[in-house]
Design brief:
Blueprint lengths: L4 E6 L6 H11 L4 E2 L3 E2 L14 E2 L2 H9 L3 E7 L2 E6 H9 L3 E5 L2 H10 L4 E6 L3 H11 L4 H16 L6 E4 L3 H13 L10
Parallel strand pairs: 1-7, 1-8, 2-7, 3-4, 8-9
Antiparallel strand pairs: 3-6, 5-6
Helix pairs in contact: 1-7, 5-6
Length: 192
């Protein structure tokens, strides 16, 4: 059976990971996108079980304490985590599992899964990122500023990832992600 693997997609809030991921999943339905648990309130249009599992903080804390999360982190005042069971099941079945998570969670995954592939999505510039965050207009000024501060710290850590992709054009960024995922590595030379 094909071997399952973990693909970690990280990048600052507002960089367009969601749009990229939706396109990637349309092109490659064989990939499995992990649905995270969060204590954040749903945004307009978000659905429980499709976008996130929205839970209370005590429920989240219970899951973390019971080792039900593969990784978790606090981000801009809310908790986010990857449900362990679903991911492990899919990996055992040989599927490639995509985690769309922030930097701290990505580091936890790299520690536990040394062969996970890390892809970091960069904005064309920090200025553009701020504009995108403000256009979303779903959050308070304070929340936007917290996200921007975090974005700067995340961008500084981009070289911890195997691949860096600048999201200046959706098509180009997608092509680069596909190349990272599906281009076969150089064959190993085996001595006989
Ligand atoms: P948002 O509130 O914009 O949906 O997500 C905020 C941040 O949390 C994003 O950077 C997103 O990648 C990250 N995130 C979403 N799910 C998870 C998760 O399960 N674990 C971690 N560590 N981060 C997550």
């Amino acid at each position: 059976m094909a071997k399952g693997k973990l693909i970690v997609l990280t990048g600052p809030s507002g960089v367009g990971k969601g749009t990229l991921l939706r396109s990637l999943m349309r092109r490659h339905p064989e990939l499995y996108l992990s649905i995270s648990v969060t204590t954040r309130q749903p945004r307009a249009g978000e659905l429980h079980g499709r976008d996130y599992y929205f839970v209370s903080r005590p429920e989240f804390e219970r899951m973390a304490a019971n080792q039900q999360l593969l990784e978790w982190a606090e981000f801009a005042g809310n908790c986010y985590g990857t449900p362990r069971l679903a991911v492990e099941k899919q990996i055992q079945r040989g599927r490639w599992v995509v985690l769309e998570i922030e930097l701290e969670g990505a580091r936890q995954i790299f520690e536990g899964f040394s062969d996970a592939l890390g892809i970091f999505i960069l904005p064309p510039s920090m200025r553009e990122l701020e504009q995108r965050l403000r256009q979303r207009a779903s959050e308070s000024e304070e929340a936007i500023l917290r996200r921007l501060e975090r974005a700067r710290a995340e961008v500084d850590a981009a070289d911890e990832f195997d691949v860096q992709v600048v999201n200046d054009s959706l098509e180009r960024a997608l092509d680069q992600i596909e190349a990272a995922l599906f281009v076969a590595p150089e064959p190993e030379i085996v001595a006989v």
